Amino acid sequence: MRIWQQNVNKSLLAQEDLLHRAHPNDYDLIAIQEPYLDRLALTRSTTHWRVVYPSPHRTDAASRSRSVLLINKKLSTNNWNPISIPHADVTAVTIRTEGAASIHLFNLYVDAHSDTAIHATVRAMRNLGDWDDDEDLQQQALWIGDFNRHHQRWDDPGNAHLFTSANVNRAEILTRYLDVLGLEMRN
Fold first, then answer.
1. How many structural domains compose the chain?
2. Cα(115)–Cα(170) distance, rounded to whole angstroms?
3. Helix, strand, coil content of the chain in percent (nearest 5)
4. How confident is the model at residue 137 (pLDDT cuts 50, 70, 90)?
5. Which stretches of 112-181 are assigned E, i.e. beta strand?
6. Is residue 33 part of a domain?
7. What pLDDT, in 10s, does the model give residues 165-177?
8. What is the largest CA-CA distance in the chain?
9. Displacement of CA 160 from its chain's centroid (Å)
């Protein structure tokens, strides 16, 4: 599976550039954080992609959605379905592979001052199965996104100025869930 991930900072120009560069022959999914949304709260795409919004998108209770997934139309709708997560910053789908395995893909925008997107994703994962069983290869999870967290486990050691106690403490919830859920960092 080939995935392009990018935060476009709500910029129409940046999103159009991404759509121009991420050719549908080269990518199966595009995970966008802080997508451009027009006055109708719709994002931009091309005819090659299906747009998946967070579950509460465009509802009265939803704040502005900060994640979307674009799924290549070459991927049959019989092979994937959205996962309902009641958070405007998390978009998720389950993709079924030829070997009958399921990949649960979560696209998160994690606000610098809030962990609610992380908690919502963990609740959804727990509803999808038992993640403590290392032998269960029938389902896998992939978290993609903009996490707005700094920690020695993934930031360049040359950026020591980022490792303030406040920043490291903000990242601890993420590192704890990485360990508990058996997720591995791939930067």
1. 1
2. 8
3. 25, 25, 50
4. low
5. 139-146
6. yes
7. 888 888 999 999 9
8. 48
9. 27
